[in-house]
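Fig. S4 source data, part A: sequence.
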Amino acid sequence: MTAPTTSAAPPPAFRAASGHHYHSARLAAARRLTIAADHSAGLAAECAIKAILLDYLGSRLNDKQRPYNKGLELGAQPHPTGGTWRKQDRKEYLHEHLPDLWGQLTTILDRRRARETGVLFLRLIGHNPFHDWDVSGRYCDSTTISDADLDRHLRAAYELLAAHEQAKFLGTGSLA
């Protein structure tokens, strides 16, 4: 009998993955592969947001290597209509996908009163450029993704990456 093995997967490298997805998105966009470009732009933004949350805004990895923020956990609450207690949906505190992930980023910044951010970063996150993006978009035909949508998603992914890099470069731990 052999002992059970445990997964020794390395922790996610969200910053590196974000850069990889962004470059893949740019290459796909240059070849007019709209679906792949838009999907990769969204993944680049997701990974950049997760890197920002982990590196600068207090989020952590759980025992399954999934990012979350303790500040978003509410615990059991009374059901709004009375009766049984409501268990919080894990999607409310685990950092998963856009566009909900963008909402988590802004909620965390609001609760921290944006101590670690500057005007440029607050302007960047003031409007969610991925409000209409969904990870399942990879299954669509290319007619549902406009050039304007793709440009907006690519620009936002780049700006999120740049914000993370600037904070790292400055060494201040703040998002300018």
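Fig. S4 source data, part B ends here. Helices lie at 14-30, 34-56, 100-111, 119-125, 147-170.
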